[in-house]
TrEMBL record:
It comes from the Bacteria. InterPro entries: AB_hydrolase_1, AB_hydrolase_fold, AB_hydrolase_sf. Keywords: Hydrolase. It holds the Pfam family Abhydrolase_1. Residues 45-168 form the AB hydrolase-1 domain. This is Alpha/beta hydrolase. The keyword Magnesium does not apply. GO terms for molecular function: hydrolase activity.
Length: 306
C-alpha cells in the first residue's frame, strides 16, 4: 500500500487521514487511511467498504471513531471514487467486487493469514464483505454489515429476462454524462436519491465522486455501474452464502433504512451462526447522516469489546 496526497484533491480529504493506493493486477484501488496510535498497532486493521455509487467518504464520520483503537482503511470500490474503472467491454459483477477484495487482502494485507482483519461494509459493501468472509473465514476476525444482510436475489424464473435487460443495456450504452456548473449543484441532486441524504451528508460524500470537465463537473463514477447485472443470485444461493459465515458478525439495522420493511430478513439472520443484531435510529446512511453516535458505539463494542 502507498499513502499519497493527490494533486488538487485535498478539498475532499478529511483531517487525520491520507489518500491511499492499492495496485491490483488489472486496476488500482484508491481509498482513505486513518492510522491509529502506535500503541494500538497490535490490533487487527479494519477494512471498510462502501455502498453502490458511494465512495470511501461515506465513512468520514465513522472511521475516526474507530481509528482511536485500530488502523482503518476505507476503500473506493472499482468504478467509484478515485479507483480505476473496469476495462472497456467489462461490467460490474458482484463477484468481481469480491475478487477485488480478495486480491487486495492477499497483496496488501498478507499478515491477515496469521492475524485476521476486521471488515465493515455498508449496503453493497456489506454484501461484498459477507461473501468474502464466507469464502475465507480464516482471514476475517469480525464482520460488520451496516443496513445490509446478504445479496439482492431474483427467482430462477427471472434469469433470462434479467440477462436480456443486461445485454440490451450493454449494447445501447450509457447516456452522455450530465455536466453540472459546480459540485454543490450535484450534491443537491444527490440529496434526493434512492437513499436520501441531508445537505451536510451529501456535501461530504459527493465531491469525491466528481471531476472537472471543461467549464463544469461530471460524475467520476463509471456510468456502467448503473447497467443491470446479467446474473443475480437466487434466494437459495443467498441463504447458502449466509449460512457459510463462521465469523462473529454484527448486523446494524437502521430503523428507517432500506431493509426496515423488507420481508424475509429474519430467515436470513437466523442462518448466520454467530450473529448480533443492533437496531439504531436513522436511514440507510445511518453511519454518515444525522446522529452517528449509536452506530459508532455499537461497532466499537462489537470490535473492541468496549
Amino acid at each position: 500500500m502507498t499513502d499519497t496526497v493527490l494533486p488538487g484533491s485535498g478539498h475532499d480529504i478529511p483531517a487525520g487521514c491520507r489518500e491511499a493506493r492499492w495496485p491490483l493486477d488489472n486496476l488500482t484501488l484508491a481509498g482513505l487511511t486513518w492510522h491509529t496510535d502506535p500503541s494500538h498497532e497490535v490490533r487487527s486493521p479494519i477494512l471498510m467498504v462502501h455502498g453502490w455509487l458511494d465512495n470511501a467518504m461515506t465513512f468520514a464520520r465513522l472511521a475516526p471513531a474507530l481509528a482511536s483503537d485500530a488502523s482503518v482503511h476505507a476503500i473506493d470500490m472499482a468504478g467509484h471514487g478515485h479507483s480505476g474503472h473496469r476495462p472497456p467491454g467489462y461490467g460490474y459483477w458482484l463477484m468481481d467486487y469480491v475478487a477485488d477484495l480478495s486480491e487486495l487482502i492477499d497483496h496488501h494485507f498478507p499478515e491477515s493469514e496469521r492475524y485476521p482483519l476486521d471488515l465493515v461494509g455498508h449496503s453493497l459493501g456489506g454484501i461484498v464483505c459477507a461473501l468474502y468472509a464466507a469464502a475465507f473465514p480464516e482471514r476475517v476476525r469480525r464482520l460488520v454489515m451496516i443496513d445490509s444482510l446478504g445479496a439482492l436475489s431474483r427467482p430462477a424464473k427471472e434469469t433470462i429476462p434479467q440477462l436480456r435487460r443486461a445485454l440490451q443495456k450493454k449494447r445501447n450504452g450509457s447516456a452522455p454524462p450530465a455536466v453540472y456548473p459546480d459540485v454543490a449543484t450535484a450534491a443537491r441532486i444527490r440529496e434526493g436519491g434512492l437513499s436520501p441524504l441531508s445537505a451536510e451528508a451529501a456535501a461530504l460524500l459527493v465531491p469525491r465522486n466528481m471531476r472537472a470537465e471543461g467549464a463544469g463537473f461530471v460524475w467520476r463514477t463509471d456510468a456502467r455501474l448503473r447497467h443491470p447485472t446479467p446474473l443475480m443470485m437466487t434466494e437459495e444461493q443467498v441463504h447458502a452464502s449466509l449460512a457459510a459465515i463462521q465469523t462473529p458478525t454484527l448486523f446494524v439495522r437502521a430503523s428507517e433504512g432500506l431493509l426496515a420493511s423488507r420481508g424475509g430478513l429474519d430467515k436470513r439472520a437466523e442462518l448466520i451462526p454467530d450473529l448480533t443484531t443492533v437496531d439504531v435510529p436513522g436511514g440507510h446512511h445511518c453511519h454518515l447522516d444525522g446522529d452517528t453516535t449509536p452506530v459508532a458505539h455499537a461497532i466499537k463494542r462489537f470490535l473492541f469489546n468496549e
